[in-house]
Predict the 3D structure of the following.
Amino acid sequence: MATQLILTALIIGLSAGVLSGLVGIGGGIIMVPALVFFMHYSQHQAQGTSLAVLTLPVVILASIYYYNQCQHLGTPIDLKVVGLIALGFVVGGFFGSKIAIAINQDMLKKIFAIILFYTAFKMLSWDTLIIKWIKGIF
């Protein structure tokens, strides 16, 4: 492996890890675009790599830390809910990957971008601002 490739992969992993631990994001928002832009991966290849990286060993330390801290704060993480979501995630991930492979790469990039834009608008509450602005016009 070339030194530049090793450094790029490590920087992508470090960035995704810090942001994942900080605010619970990393795979789709950091790793996938970084793999496409900096390592010239296809959209399919980037998404598959991101999912492979996010397996249990990678997030276990952050999960344990959050679990312990939430216990101390009196807002425990419900492991039953974690199990149910994980089960749904496994099944959904399997079927989602089958659908993604069947979709043209350019279309998949557009779907990915729309989901990121939608998430950003909702998180910043811009959707409600736009609705208020439109209602103000009429």
Summary: The chain has three domains: 1-54, 59-102, 108-138. Residues 59-102 form one domain. The chain has a mean pLDDT of 86. The longest helix spans residues 79-102.
